[in-house]
Design goal:
Length: 528
């Protein structure tokens, strides 16, 4: 027995030696990687940095006084304010992230990255959203593949074409108006995000496919699968694929994708059949019809079929995000009829437009992450900064909340977006918006393809509802309903941000926390 034991001792020792060597090599690599941060960051202001943990302690410290479920772009705004950071700064959060981040909050540098150089999307995007959008989504493609995919769908989202679809959008919004009327009648506490999401999805169904999803009045297989896919999105705080691996999530991704693909394939096949029979309405073409026309008419193949399906899912994904004033029309019936017959009315709502833009400034829908490259540098205050092995993160939220760009940056002041000729412009805290500072829909070649539609939707929704309903946030009541401590309080920032109980949480995109619990009532001074 002693001979047998002694026989294995050299092997055991060798194993420990090998493990010790590997650990030593790993430690040296970490040290060198962390040490290189200082040469990359240079003279830029930086949050506190640890040679072993990088920027993680500094970012983690922010979460002591901010919600754990908030969107990362909001957390970075707090980080920037706390340490008075420059318009660009580097973060090193490996292994939570697989590479360094160059955070950009300066409009000029953002324009370099997105508009001038049009850097490709960050390589982790497919891991985060391809289960929702499909792998050939224009959100995920680059270069010539992206151009080929986006080009056929551009006509369907032009401002001129969208005006032909206004009657369909108005009809969907009238259903939403009925929903608000019912809620006002019952006075029940409700999460307003749900009916609003269903409204925008119904609108997208008509604009993209001329298809009645009817999700506002009934359950729909596509909508349910889509929303389940969103719920099973990986944690955006853990972009390292190893840390984000989850077998259960993988099953849900496969299941939801299969259900959505089958549904949309049937819709597309039915559409092709109607086109072949010549029974489609030519005056109001959905985006998919224009895309088919651009592609070559009725001669579509399986490749185009899958690309089209992925773009339809992409548009659903993008579309599901989206004070009283003097711009009134009349009662709901006459307002709806006016909008259907005179689309120019929507261009005559400067204050409504300003309210929408100011809301999107304060509650920015998204930021964008781009992939740096070895041969590309970005210039800030006359100094060039490398982007090799770096995620270039354009944080529009921090930009929009910057007091140097938007005075009184945490205040809701729509007048800043009014034309100087408007009688309320004197209420604006600034004479103009700095160039490239407002990026609610991003800028450059990859700016949101649906921004015209989003603005159109919001104007119509407001025109049909703002005079008739008061919608009041009820977070205190919601907290009490769920048995939470100190209902309505922000808990020293752990349950609220920027002075408000409402904040943006991360659910694939930025969403109002808790689905925005509200009560709806009739506007007493504007009852019809």
């Amino acid at each position: 027995m002693e001979l047998e034991i002694s026989h294995y001792r050299p092997s055991t020792s060798l194993i420990f030696i090998l493990l010790g060597t590997l650990v030593s090599i790993w430690i040296v690599r970490i040290y060198r990687y962390r040490a290189s941060y200082h040469s990359v960051h240079g003279s830029l202001k930086a949050p506190p940095f640890s040679m072993w943990l990088g920027s993680m302690p500094a970012t983690g410290d922010i979460y002591k006084n901010s919600p754990m479920n908030t969107h990362p772009m909001c957390t970075m705004t707090l980080l920037s304010r706390k340490h008075n950071l420059d318009g660009i700064y580097y973060l090193d959060t490996w292994p939570i992230s697989d590479m360094r981040q160059l955070c950009v909050t300066d409009p000029e540098v953002a324009a370099q990255a997105v508009q001038k150089f049009n850097l490709p999307k960050y390589h982790i995007y497919p891991q985060m959203i391809s289960h929702i959008t499909g792998k050939t989504s224009m959100l995920l493609l680059h270069g010539s593949a992206w151009k080929r995919t986006r080009a056929p769908f551009n006509p369907g989202f032009s401002a001129a074409h969208l005006t032909t679809l206004i009657p369909m959008i108005v009809d969907d919004c009238l259903i939403f108006h009925s929903t608000l009327s019912s809620l006002a009648g019952t006075g029940e506490l409700t999460q307003i995000e749900d009916p609003l999401t269903r409204l925008t999805i119904d609108i997208m169904g008509h604009v993209i496919m001329d298809h009645d999803l009817n999700s506002q009045i009934s359950e729909n297989e596509l909508v349910n699968s889509f929303r389940a896919a969103v719920e099973h999105t990986p944690n955006a705080m853990l972009v390292n694929p190893i840390l984000n691996w989850d077998p259960n999530r993988m099953f849900w991704h496969w299941y939801c994708s299969r259900k959505m693909n089958n549904y949309l394939k049937k819709v597309l096949q039915d559409r092709m059949k109607l086109r072949a029979e010549g029974t489609v309405e030519l005056k109001r073409k959905p985006a998919i019809d224009l895309a088919i026309d651009e592609y070559g008419g009725e001669k579509v193949d399986e490749e185009f079929m899958q690309v089209a399906i992925d773009q339809m899912k992409t548009f659903l994904f993008a579309g599901h995000d989206t004070s009283k004033h003097d711009e009134v029309f009349g009662d709901i019936g006459s307002t709806a009829e006016k909008l259907k017959t005179d689309s120019k009315l929507l261009n005559e709502l400067p204050y409504t437009t300003a309210v929408i833009k100011e809301t999107l400034r304060l509650y920015t829908p998204a930021s964008t992450a781009r992939q740096g490259s070895p041969g590309l540098t970005l210039t800030y205050n006359g100094t060039t900064h490398p982007t090799a092995n770096t995620m270039v993160w354009i944080n529009n939220h921090t930009m929009h909340r910057s007091a140097s760009l938007f005075p009184l940056s945490d205040s809701f002041l729509p007048a800043r977006f009014l034309p100087p000729s408007h009688p309320s412009f004197h209420l604006s805290p600034q004479s103009s918006i700095p160039k490239d500072a407002y990026r609610a829909f991003e800028k450059g070649p990859r700016a949101c393809i649906g921004q015209e539609l989003a603005m159109l939707e919001m104007k119509i929704i407001m025109a049909l509802t703002i005079r008739e309903f008061d919608i009041t946030a009820c977070y205190e009541e919601w907290d009490r309903k769920l048995g939470r401590e100190k209902p309505g309080e922000m808990l020293d920032g752990k349950r609220g941000m920027f002075g408000h109980r409402a904040f943006q949480e991360m659910k694939a995109t930025a969403k109002p926390v808790d689905g925005m619990p509200v009560r709806v009532s009739l506007a007493g001074s504007h009852k019809v």
